[in-house]
Amino acid sequence: ALVPMSQILNKAQAEGYAVGGFNMNNLESLQAIIETAEEERSPVIVQLSEGALRYVGIDYATACVKAAADKATIPVALHLDHGSSFEKIIECIRYGFSSVMIDGSKLPFEENIALVQKVVEAARVVGVSVEAELGKIGGTEDDHTVDEREALMTNPDEAKEFVERTGVDALAIAIGTAHGPYKGKPELDFERLEKIRNLVNVPLVLHGASGVYDEDIKKAISLGICKININTDFQQVFTAKVREILNNDEKVYDPRKILGPAKDAMKEKVREKIRLLGSNNRV
Ligand code: G3H
Ligand code: 13P
Ligand code: ZN
Ligand code: NA
Asked: What is the domain count for the chain?
């Protein structure tokens, strides 16, 4: 069934596991996420970026996720990833999203707060959950010195004030992860995470989790991360299988014979991540 994201995350927080914020980009990736979550008896958050929504179409995307969620016997949240404006948030709520992220992380502190307050006020009326971001989660291509990296990370005292003044349901924090693949081994600031966890009581979200080592994911969960966002790892296994099939068979032309196995390959990666997060057998 389709449920608000906070219902999923509050249970995860109470029981000490994390739930995947898994990005879908086409029908096969949605099927891979939902089918595997169902098989693993895991709650799941299906999310689309604004780019993915433009690619799929908001009408197709919401119709497909709702059909999948109605059929599923696990809790499913439909979540907007990195929403950039109040207008986009309202559009998604109107189309039936059960959760939205408003990403004001590039704004000055007070402007970020004002934008999130406005979104929370509107979303609350219709029971939709809200995730916000404080601190800057970079792209892997961004080259920063150690001092610059520090400056971009979430300030624990600001996080406390931010959550208290906005009333958000979940907070995305910057502790050293980046979107996309990493060049070397990503170094997470676990001390910072602990400080934030001690000051903030809402579920915390880790973005850019593709490429983060399994032991670091586990440690982050043990220190209070409840939602783990993954896009790139899934895209990479999906495309690797497409490439393998095309390289091995010059005559194949039926998309089902290409995308079907890609979906199956993605399912195994989704399964691996669900078990890593510990959200299996929770329903
Ligand atoms: O956080 C963003 C996601 O990784 C997907 O972004 O669909 O705009 O490439 P994109
Ligand atoms: P990755 O690109 O590292 O998978 O991050 C996904 C993400 O944070 C989506 O919001
Ligand atoms: Zn993200
Ligand atoms: Na990443």
From this structure: 1
Q: Which atom of ligand 1 is nearest to the CA of 55?
A: 7
> Can you give the residue range of the structural domain that contains 187?
5-236+266-277
**What is the C-alpha separation between 103 and 179, in angstroms, rounded?**
14
Distance between Cα 140 and ligand 2 center (Å): 11
Digit-coded pLDDT (tens) for 115-152: 999 999 999 999 999 999 999 998 887 888 888 888 89
Best mutation site among 49, 105, 136, 140 for ligand 1, i.e. most ligand atoms within 8 A of its Cβ? 49
**Which are the contacts of 59, defined by CB distance < 8 A and separation ≥ 6?**
95
Q: How far is the CA of 145 from the centre of ligand 3 (A)?
A: 21
Q: Is 179 in the pocket of ligand 2 (CB under 6 A)?
A: yes
Tokens representing residue 155 in the block: 């300030």
Query: Which pLDDT score is estimated for 176?
Result: 96
Q: State the catalytic residues.
A: 81
What pLDDT, on the 0 to 100 scale, is given for residue 49?
A: 98
Asked if residue 257 is part of any domain, the answer here is no
β-strand partners of 188: none
Q: Which residue ranges in the chain fall short of pLDDT 50?
A: none
